[in-house]
Write a structure and sequence with these properties.
Two copies of one chain form a homodimer.
Chain A (H helix, E strand, L loop, with lengths): L9 E4 L7 H13 L7 E5 L1 H10 L8 E5 L10 H7 L4 H10 L5 E4 L3 H11 L10 E7 L4 E5 L9 H17 L8 E4 L10 H12 L1 H4 L1 E5 L11 E3 L2 H26 L3 H9 L1 H11 L7 E4 L4 E4 L6 H16 L2 H23 L1
Parallel strand pairs in A: 1-2, 1-4, 2-3, 4-11, 6-9, 7-8, 7-9
Antiparallel strand pairs in A: 5-6, 5-10, 10-11
Helix pairs in contact in A: 1-12, 3-5, 4-5, 6-7, 6-13
Chain lengths: 353, 353
Amino acid sequence: MGNSRENKAIAIDAMGGDKGPNEVVAGVAMALKNGWIQDEIHLVGREETLADLLREHELQTLPGILLHPASEVIEMSEKPVQSIRSKPDASLVRTIGLVKDGRCGAALSCGNTGSLMACATIKLRPVEGVSKPALASVWPGAGNHFVVLDVGANPLCKKENLLQYAVLGYQYAKDALGIAHPRVGLLSNGTEVTKGTGLIVETHDLLQAIQGQIHYVGPIEGFDLFNNTVDVVVTDGFTGNVLLKSCESLWKMLKGLLKEELTKTPLRMAGALLLKGGLEETKRRLDPNNHGGAPLLGLRGTVLKAHGSSDRVAIANAIRVAATAMEHNLASHTVTAIATANETLGQSLAGES
Amino acid sequence: MGNSRENKAIAIDAMGGDKGPNEVVAGVAMALKNGWIQDEIHLVGREETLADLLREHELQTLPGILLHPASEVIEMSEKPVQSIRSKPDASLVRTIGLVKDGRCGAALSCGNTGSLMACATIKLRPVEGVSKPALASVWPGAGNHFVVLDVGANPLCKKENLLQYAVLGYQYAKDALGIAHPRVGLLSNGTEVTKGTGLIVETHDLLQAIQGQIHYVGPIEGFDLFNNTVDVVVTDGFTGNVLLKSCESLWKMLKGLLKEELTKTPLRMAGALLLKGGLEETKRRLDPNNHGGAPLLGLRGTVLKAHGSSDRVAIANAIRVAATAMEHNLASHTVTAIATANETLGQSLAGES
């Protein structure tokens, strides 16, 4: 939800990805073809480049596709706050601007994560009752996909932050990912409440008080992450960031090792050829690009960060998730959910005294 | 090193593992056959059972294999402190007792991790200058193996703890795993020092002061874990525990998914058959059982926890690692290393004032 009116248009930073603007425009074309776009698409970037690409993809005559010029591009290596201050006409900055101005309800970028977080946090106000936004990430599990938050926006979390992240994650899993009754777990070093740190024990008490609202299942441990025990994993931004990057590193190592072993002898190579479909299917099922990327939650407006190396399929999927979130009124549901949680907690505290 | 004298005998809890005492005795036989045992082996457990098993494995006449009766067994589900208090004659408790009494230099168990940690922490004094012991874990990476600590002994770490863990991990990687110049990294949410929490920034300063002693490479992030960037990963017991269990969960999910995809069609099954060697080799290379299990570091005496499901190969490997550690004088090196680090830090602090 923008500042001024309910708005379901999507602003897209067309310049930030590793694969360049052509892949972004191709993603828009794919999303259109699949019927995933319900409202305007605002493409932000170098005007001439984008106009050429729209012609190439035969999108130039569609009234729902609009161009917004932006002369600069923030590179992946730039420092967050510095980059958005020194490049006010960067595509990423202009994209967030469209949400700030209320022209779009959601922003999508595959550019510099730090810059996107900094820009959105500075330009968009947080939802009433949310102290700090969270960066969430959608991971593949055995038979489900689950949301992990925070994965890096807020390394030093307080219990209030974690409580808010539980509500934000629950609502996102429900409205954007279409999970009917998301199960929420609090990541700890054991499933017994007493095992956790002070922060975990205190957050557990708060989450129990709003258990009816968010389907809180209790503290979970690392073993519960990939085995379909929960749909939302609540953790601080330090642990979440370490976890996200470590799992990505482990997955990369395993792929490399498997490739090395499966190509060691001609016999194995023949076997691998027969298995090509199975190996590719495994990779596809695990590919996080199919799930819309990483949302920045808790701000007025949906902000999605797609992976820097996103191809057209990933872009189209991110558009689909953003459109789904808006169709299900994620923004207004979030405002209500945070207010309800705070009211319940207030009553629970009043009841105690 | 026991309390009284330098001692290279190994005490083994023969009862605690999931596979029972036969697997433990078979592991001893295997380690003997491979020439991995240099000193006495003290087997602790039900006397009759063990005497029968020694006969079965033709070890009963060897003077270096000794039996120690223990009438009780701590189950995996029992609570740590309660279990060791209520079962003073448990094999696990008696095993640690042999190190405490100075009869053995190292203890090995595949029983209840919590009980082993509690028992060792209560019975064995910490090395001079170490505040709390750490549970370390050895993980397979791309081209190396690396030590992660703490993975659960101390969820709420202070900078002094992390500093000591860096020294303990370095020394273990060197003396027990045979890594000539272990590289030590401090796990953070980014490689820039300023990105980390206050704890990380302060620990970084301490580690830099002893950089020459432990080959400290700086803060690392999750991406650096499995790609042969470091040999020792220093982290608090909360993050380490979450990470250890999450990676195990991810690995289990991946194996399940791969199995499902590779057996979906007859063609794929034929391919998988050709690849059997490659898939098994991959699994073997990743199996943490080949690296001696999880050491409890910082106590007077080497304590090794092998996985509950350890087979004879895992037991034999744990014996090999314990023997290597003692052969290289891990215990006395650790005492010196901690003292040296504290001296350097004292001088560095004095120099500052």
